[in-house]
Amino acid sequence: MNQKSPLLFLAIALFYGIAFFSGNEGHAQVRPTRSDSLVVTPKDTAAVKKRGDIETTINYKAKDSIRYDAVSQIMYLYGDAHIDYGEVALDAAFIQINWKTSIIDAEGMKDSAGVLQNKPLFKNGAETYQAERMSYNYKTKKGRVIGAVTTQGEGFIHAETIKRDSAGSIYGRHARYTTCDLEHPHFYIKATKMKVIPNDRVIAGPFHLVFADVPTPIGLPFGFFPSPRKRGSGVIIPTFGESNQQGFYLREGGFYWAMNEYMDLRLTGDIYSLGGYGARVQSTYTKRYKFSGSFSLSHTFIKASENIGAGATTDNVYNYRSDSRDIWISWSHQPVTRPGQGQFSASVNAGSQFYNQRNSTSPQNALSPAFNSTVSYRKSSPNSPINYGVTISQSQTTRTQANAQGEQVPVQQMSFTLPDFSFGVASQSPIEWFGGTLTGRWIEGIRIGYNLNARQYVTNNISAGSGLGFPFSNRMGRDTVVAINGSNLSQIFRNARTSINHDIPITLGTVSLFKYFKLTPGVSYSESWFTKKFTYRNVPGSNLLAVDTLKGLQRTYQYQGGVSLATNLYGTAQIKGKKIEAIRHTLTPNLSYSFRPDFGNPEFGFYQRVQRDSLGNTQLLSRFQGLEGNVPGPGLSSALSFSVNNNVEMKVKTDSAGVFKKVSLIDAFNLAGSYNMAADSFKLSNISVNLSTKLFNNVGVTLSGSFDPYQYENGRPVDRYLIEGGGFRLARLMNLNFNTGFEFNQQARKQQAASGAAPPTNLPALQRTVTAADYVEFNIPWTLSVDLTSNFTRDALTDKLMNNATSAGINGSVTLTDKWAVNYTTSYDLKNKILSYTNIGIVRDLHCWQMSIDWVPFGVLQRYSININAKSALLQDLRLRRSSSASGRPY
Fold it and tell me: CA angle at residue 115 from 113 to 117, to 5 degrees?
């Protein structure tokens, strides 16, 4: 104690030590100064003071006590001590602040069992350190930490000693880097020296991996682990393996470039020991509040190989008897919907015929026979009735076609819409056209709209007219799929179909009749324009037809009118039971009449009657056959249509307080048909029936079918009602579709209903690589759902319902422990008695790692894969993998 300066001691004690006498909390804003010479000119209005070492207020507190040594200028904080200094925060059992040296020391405190408690926890912005002891110079912003654990992004660094320089870089000695958040991690990268640049990278070397405290025998001279606050660029480690047709390979290796915060670029490639290779360019992009998307371009070359392994498939798709070059383009662009703004969207999936079968690791893509692409732009305004849009679409599918040798070979059929333009004007009342005010009068229900659609359809499937029922003289062969190349483009575009369709919907409002009925009249007019039409003539002495094409603007049109009458009928049965209060039946009948002229009449010129065979039989043939557009159908229509919709609900008491809820007994039971009074025969149409309900409120059942009211002779219908043949048989069931499904676990049913998710299905989504880990739900002990689908069609000759297809599916999971889960999905074809696509998955949660096993035991896509990988995206390339497929050996 300084005995020579009692007044100075008293002043300092009052300034720094007041917290000791007033609850052990306080703050100090200390600005040490020293004598500096300062030259002041006459023009200066004030002296300039030099800033001190402490930049902001230091707030401190302690649970036990705070003691200040005024002579040494050291403050001691005991028990749950805490300090705040700008972005710096420190918690520890004991903290010491030396105001002379500007150093803060902190350490934990051992309990009665000798375990160190309340270890120092140091936070500097987003950085966090925990250690046995630490020192920090708040003036130079340098520090030294003993026995430290610090967090860097998703990673944790354990080190014997850590030093921090003024630039923020961290240096560790005898350090361990891991993404496991345990104090004793399951795995780590052990290095003698390690440097960390916060929010940027971790550099270590030399280092080796340690799993479960067992070091791997192979080390590396240095390691580089990016840990940026934002995305960072870096090398992508390839996958090692071996394929039966391609040999040993390195796959999916390359470079990731984070171009900026809105866009990235991924360049990867494959190389095979038998001479093949692959290359990919992938990118994702986003612009906040406007759009987001992704793009991918892939090219592969597989060298021909005659050395096909034993047991491999003989399908030419998978056996490469000749060099194979394949390409695939994927593009997805999603706009953010904004009122009054145009929306550009894209969904493109296109490429070579067998790209997915030969290169895809996704069973969904490999099994899919067809892919579709669409690019569109649409614009509408909430303040205008006008909207328009432009769409370009493409579809491709694989089918078989006979070659010159008569063998069935796969070909790729492609079609394009170049373009599809639409323009529309929303329905408006004519009163609005002249500036009138809508007041709710019935005449205001008269509204008129307009829609225009112009499209050009192009396909490489050249039609031979075989679908018309007779051959043409200039197209004797079958429909042919030609290759899309320069020499065939003129032929493909000659067969293009161009049309412009106009539609004018007119609503005449709804009129109430007798209080309970709604009468709705309506008329419509539509017109189609074409660039050509056909004229047919018989070839003398044969059954062939010659076709003459008349080019130029051609048009068809059609109009019709009608009226509908609808009402609702309710019936309630009061039960007054212990649980059931009442049952209500809602019946919605609808009766409508429509009239349309016979547009097959020669005066319209839309159809031509041609000779069908040498016996003199004739038929009407459209002069726009096979073209795009709306061609009106032949025949006079004066039809009376009817439908009856039914719904049955039950009111059930849920508790003793008299709270009720509605339970649907029949969601829908609908019948519909029509009677054409102008037809010369078969005036009554088939009767369609649809039923949907839930048995026991859990088992969903849907039924749909159609009934034919006419008799049949020798497999052909005759114009006599079935009831005329005797008995009380009104109609014959012609087809029936049935589907049902049930989830046995009530907890899973409730969670599914709460989330609004669709029930499980045996057909995973397209463009989605599904693994066992995707289905894991550890908080549900088990799930088991079953579904049954069946459809039947009546054979006209035998008059028996024939089963076209019946399949049963099972989908579920079992959580063996809180770490082990098994999921499964399969379906069985009951008609052909074979198993369809089956998948079994096993998942093991390894805390900071995850193991998954996927197994497809049957079929062409039979395979298995075992994958063990770190959960953290930071170490996603740190993995162990083994897989095998039907077309390749295990690796």
Answer: 125
